[in-house]
Design goal:
By secondary structure, the chain is α+β, with helices and mostly antiparallel strands. It is globular and about 35 Å long. The model has no long low-confidence stretch (mean pLDDT 93). A hairpin with a 2-residue loop joins strand 3 and strand 4. It is 33% helix and 27% strand. Strands 2-1-4-3 form a four-stranded antiparallel sheet, sandwiched between helices.
Length: 102
């Protein structure tokens, strides 16, 4: 169990940018993909989540620790590492970057 906690076995790691709407999310996602701004810089500048101060980094989390839509994206076996996805939850629209698969 201690080993799992230290090395994050079974856990995902992601960063996100929380925004109010999908149009803004699409615009910022495009800016990141074109290389106009880094994900970290975009999170610090645009995200409304407290994680913005850490470039959107949410750290490690296990299945069920995030709201359902966010959880489903991060634990979907088809989600690719470092791919940017847009997911809508009760908190707003997220640009998610999965940085560790479970």
């Amino acid at each position: 169990m201690f080993f799992d906690q230290i090395f994050g076995l079974g856990k995902a790691k992601a960063s996100h940018i929380l925004l109010s709407d999908r149009g803004r999310a699409n615009f910022i996602k495009t800016q990141i993909e074109r290389g106009d701004i880094t994900f970290t810089a975009a999170a610090k500048e645009f995200s409304t989540c407290p994680s913005a101060s850490k470039g959107g980094d949410l750290g490690l989390f296990g299945p069920g620790q995030m709201v359902a839509e966010f959880n489903d994206y991060c634990f979907d076996p088809n989600t690719q590492l470092n791919e940017l996805g847009i997911v809508r939850t009760q908190f707003g629209t997220h640009i998610i970057k999965l940085t560790k698969k479970p």
